[in-house]
Write a structure and sequence with these properties.
nine-stranded mixed β-sheet
Length: 300
């Protein structure tokens, strides 16, 4: 019991030192500490406190250090309920510059899926004051990382779910398919869209669905996009069906005809194949398809 409130399961239990500290009504401090256990067994430990904390984590026998001011986690809440409902929470990770996972830049590792399905323990450690020995801890959450979405140079949006989520799974999270799972220029692809923009001017006899352009290199802009920067269609964007060396043929027409010398920016497209990722973008390290999966006709 803590302040007379029963703590029924082992996950929420507190040792006598913590109970005595809380019941004493004396000032105390606490720190939330997080342990990520990756699929290869690597453990990453962080605390939201201002100082690193040494403590024996839940379920372990040796002391470990929770690093401060490196990765901060915000938004996790405590939930206690009866039943097998999945505790699903959205939170943010703020990553300090220079952080790595197994020698790889932290955000790059996130995009490559290193933290996918990592087991997460959240413990709240209690002390009489900063710098004093840890009295003990209470486990606030045990679950798994569900999704991660880098939202800038230092922030990652993270969704976590309690272990009961495994009861809901009836298929793998990732499909094994030949095509890449990423979308060109998204967080997993990592390529900077602005770096691939090519400025152009519409040629004579262009229409609302075809832009005549001498630099429309064959195949380069297939499945890409074009954004108008002047003329009657300024600000509008369309998908490119095909580039044939002299024009861009669009999937859907612009609202108005494209006039000669209307300015635009064209962006290349990707058909999600490995050869395209390698030869067109030199981005094979971030390819998330399985090009050697047999086709249905050959699988047996």
């Amino acid at each position: 019991r803590v302040h007379g409130i029963p703590i029924g399961d082992q996950m929420r239990s507190a040792n006598a030192a913590v109970t005595t500290l809380l019941d004493s009504r004396e000032p105390f401090v606490y720190a939330d500490c997080y342990t990520f256990t990756l699929r290869d067994g690597t453990k990453l430990r962080y605390t939201n406190a201002q100082y690193a904390i040494d403590f024996i984590p839940y379920g372990e026998v040796n002391p470990a250090r929770f690093e401060a001011k490196k990765v901060l986690i915000d938004g996790m809440k405590f939930k206690s309920s009866i039943g097998i409902d999945v505790d699903e929470q959205d939170c943010k990770m703020y990553v300090a510059p220079g952080q790595t996972i197994n020698g790889v830049d932290f955000l790059t590792a996130v995009r490559r899926g290193v933290l996918d399905k990592a087991i997460l323990y959240r413990e709240r450690l209690y002390m009489s004051d900063w710098g004093q020995p840890v009295k003990g801890g209470v486990v606030m959450f045990i679950g798994r990382v569900s999704t991660l979405d880098p939202a800038g140079d230092t922030t990652v949006m993270m969704k976590v779910k309690s272990e009961t989520v495994t009861l809901d799974e009836n298929m793998p999270r990732n499909y094994f398919q030949m095509e890449c799972k990423h979308t060109l220029f998204d967080g997993g692809c990592t390529l900077n869209k602005a770096a691939f923009a090519v400025a152009g001017l519409a040629g004579a006899s262009s229409t609302s669905i075809q832009i005549n352009w001498a630099s429309a290199t064959a195949d380069t802009y297939d499945l890409g996009t074009v954004t108008m920067e002047s003329g009657a269609n300024v600000g509008q964007k369309r998908t490119i069906r095909r580039s044939d060396g002299s024009s861009l043929l669009l999937v859907t027409p612009f609202e108005y005809p494209v006039a000669e010398n209307d300015a635009f920016k064209a962006y290349p497209g990707c058909d999600l194949q490995y050869d395209t990722c390698l030869n067109k973008f030199s981005n094979q390290d971030n390819y998330r398809g399985f090009p050697y999966v047999p086709t249905p006709e050959r699988a047996y």
